[in-house]
Design brief:
By secondary structure, this protein is an alpha+beta fold. It has helices spanning 3-16, 21-27, 51-61, 65-72; strands at 41-42, 45-46, 87-93, 115-119, 128-131, 146-150, 160-165, 168-173, 179-180, 194-201. The two termini are 26 Å apart.
Length: 203
Amino acid sequence: MRHEDVWRALDTLAAEKGLSPSGLARAAGLDPTAFNRSKRTSRAGLRWPSTESLSRVLSATGASLESFTALVGGARALAGAGRQRARHLPLLPLSRLLEAELFDAAGYPAAHGWERTEVPQPGDPHSYAVHLDDPRFEPVFREGGILIMSPDAPIRPGDRVLVRDDGGINAFVAGTPYRPLDRRGGEIAERPEWAHRIVWASL
């Protein structure tokens, strides 16, 4: 196995998921530049991607170790998988979700004030992404990771949700009563401003 085989496999996996290398890194909860060509070399030549980054990529994309190994071995596509289109979603750090005018009256992301990110799976038309820029939801969700939110997805008992109310932004497991994921605890207001289901999370 050679360095270039592993990097080629990562590039192929990104293309299969409709992502650029930086989009693949972001989807895996890594620095967006982690797979840039400038990061693939050192003074000694090509370097190996870390096993942790590979593990996160496989978890984020749903690819098996066997299928990735096949790519390393020269396969040109994931077995049994068709090419997917990239899904571009609005993105903001968690710490900014309380800012005014980010959501419209229906609770959907407004047109302005958001960044953009790529994710490897489709969402509803109003999906958006949240970058976790503080550790409040650890160990359930890792600081630096990304959550994909669906305002339209129905919330069922056991689903994880983000809620905005007078107490700020909090994460809960849906149920009666809701169980907070935030280590600081807290309760959901009787009529929160919005409650959006977490449909995907990077590791």
